[in-house]
Amino acid sequence: MEVKNNKRTIRAWAFFDWANSAYNLVITSTIFPAYYVAITSNAQNGNHVTFFGHSFVNTALSDYTLAASYLVIAILLPMLTSIADYRGNKKIFMQFFTWLGAISCGMLYFFNPNTLQSSMIFFGLAAIGYSGGFVFYNSYLPEIATLDMQDNVSAKGFTYGYIGSVILQVICFVFVLAPATFGLTKASASQLSFLLVGVWWIAFAYIPFTILPKGSPNAQSHHKNIIKGGFIELGNVWRQVKNMPVLKRYLPAFFCYSMGVQTIMLVAASFGAKVLNLPQEKLIAVILIIQLVAIAGAKLMSSLSEKHGNVKVLAGVVAIWILACIAAYFVMNEYQFYALAAVVGLMMGGIQSLSRSTYSKFIPQDIPDSASFFSFYDVTEKLAIVGGMFSFGLVEELTGNMRNSALALCIYFIAGLILLLSLLSYQKKVGRMK
Questions:
Q1: How far apart are CA 258 and CA 261, in angstroms?
Q2: Are residues 155 and 301 in contact, defined by beta-carbon separation less than 8 angstroms?
Q3: Digit-coded pLDDT (tens) for 30-79
Q4: Which residues fall within 8 angstroms of residue 230, CB to CB, at 6 or more apart?
Q5: Please, what's the largest Cα pairwise distance for the chain?
Q6: Greatest mean pLDDT among 207-221, 267-281, 305-319
Q7: pLDDT: is 281 or 369 the higher one?
Q8: pLDDT beyond 90 at 235
Q9: How many CB atoms lie within 10 A of CB 146?
Q10: What is the pLDDT of residue 368?
């Protein structure tokens, strides 16, 4: 049996974040959004595109595509995690989704105005590959780290992710900044970046694939069809959650603020490109600021949680997110955007890491089917992304202004803050009773 807190295993686990975070940075955050806005905007149609016979605002189409992708993965994951629990082969599913995401990123190399429809399908499949692998990755956390180490190990994973993605981003930035030096055009330099993401993703993912345990079979807990068993397992988890006073208060809060956090992460570059007309080079600089500051954010929040408790720190971070959304509505120039990006980066690194480790602490420890609990967590997060991205795109289409979409995200953060404060109040009440 794998010993918890093994440094080699933890390091290998963190390298999965190193591998796939390149997708999150290059495809969802920097080069692809700027490239997409540029090639889908023209004098004839403005910022509208036609997708399978329907007209959309270009950025709204990308929002809807991501929302659809995360909805698909939210539906699929219960079945897949049920099979993984039953057969003890969750690492195989990590590998499948990694290959799906990496190949789809590679296919974006062929993205041009004439391949919009097929390329947007690959864009969606890449998102499915990225998010699908993460649920199995997350479920390893309670298996490889003891309760007292989970905040630090979770932060380590995100830190590796930020560092790895920045390294590849800098490599891509060299091609994009000086394409002629390498015999490329600006467009082909961007396309090459998409291909490099796929190669990077596969190459470094083989470190965890080689070292992580494959998982332990749990066939005795499955007495029904394993295909529908995932939904039965989610129902079982939900029934358990309803009897866990802390967890049943935490999850709705997590759902609400995740609608805001995940959406901001996915639309930040499109916002800069479209609202402020920032060129690709400056957008990359902005996202690099976010990534580098996020490393410090993950470590800072881990340290603060040790002193003040996870929920109190999360509440403080969500309050700052509310102010960030209001600031986004009023931002007028690139320097204000840089300052806002620094704040967003600090909060982004902290809230992702702390949210995951907080959930890991609140679920029962040393359970054989941790994948089911983390499936519940990931389905919650994916549905939050669906709601956040769809509403962001819809508000832009209805109002014609992405600033209104950013301001509307305040609603989700305010709801999340109220629920976190309620949880904090409950924890204090229980503490006094003890």
A1: 5
A2: yes
A3: 889 889 988 988 767 678 888 988 889 888 999 999 999 999 988 887 77
A4: 77, 78, 79, 80, 81, 82, 83, 372, 375
A5: 71
A6: 305-319
A7: 281
A8: no
A9: 12
A10: 54
| Domain edges within the chain | 7-216+236-433
Please name which of 188, 38, 183, 49 lies closest in space to residue 109, comparing C-alpha atoms.
Answer: 188
Alpha-carbon span 86 to 139, nearest angstrom: 14
- Calpha distance 64→411 (Å, rounded): 20
Closest to 35 measured CA to CA, from 97, 126, 140, 113: 113
Residues whose CB falls within 8 Å of the CB of residue 40, separated by 6 or more in sequence, listed in order: 47, 49, 58, 113, 116
What do you get for the CA distance between the two ends of the chain, in Å?
36
For residue 219, name the pLDDT band (cuts at 50, 70, 90).
very low
Give the model's confidence band at 209: pLDDT under 50 very low, under 70 low, under 90 confident, else very high.
very high
7-216+236-433: which CATH number, 1.20.1730.10, 3.40.980.10, 1.20.1250.20, 3.40.1180.10?
1.20.1250.20
| Rounded mean pLDDT, 414-434 | 84
Burial 277-303 (b: 16+ CB within 10 A, else e): ebebebbbbbbbbbbbbbbebbbbbbe
Sign of the C-alpha dihedral computed for residues 237, 241, 247 and 250 taken in this order? positive
Amino acid at the residue 169 = Q
pLDDT of residue 25: 81
pLDDT bracket for residue 145 (50, 70, 90)? confident
- Contact between 396 and 402 (Cβ < 8 Å): yes
pLDDT at residue 224, as a whole number: 54
pLDDT class for 1, splitting at 50, 70, 90? very low
| DSSP per-residue letters across 22-85 | HIIIIITTSHHHHHHHHHT-BTTTBTEEEETTEEEEHHHHHHHHHHHHHHHHHHHHHHHHHHHH
Phi/psi of residue 55, nearest 5 degrees: -90, 135
What is d(CA 418, CA 189) in angstroms, rounded to the nearest whole number? 46
- For 56, the token pair is 């959309």
Using the CB atoms, write b or e for 208-234: b if 16+ within 10 Å.
bbeebeebeebeebbeeebeebbebbb
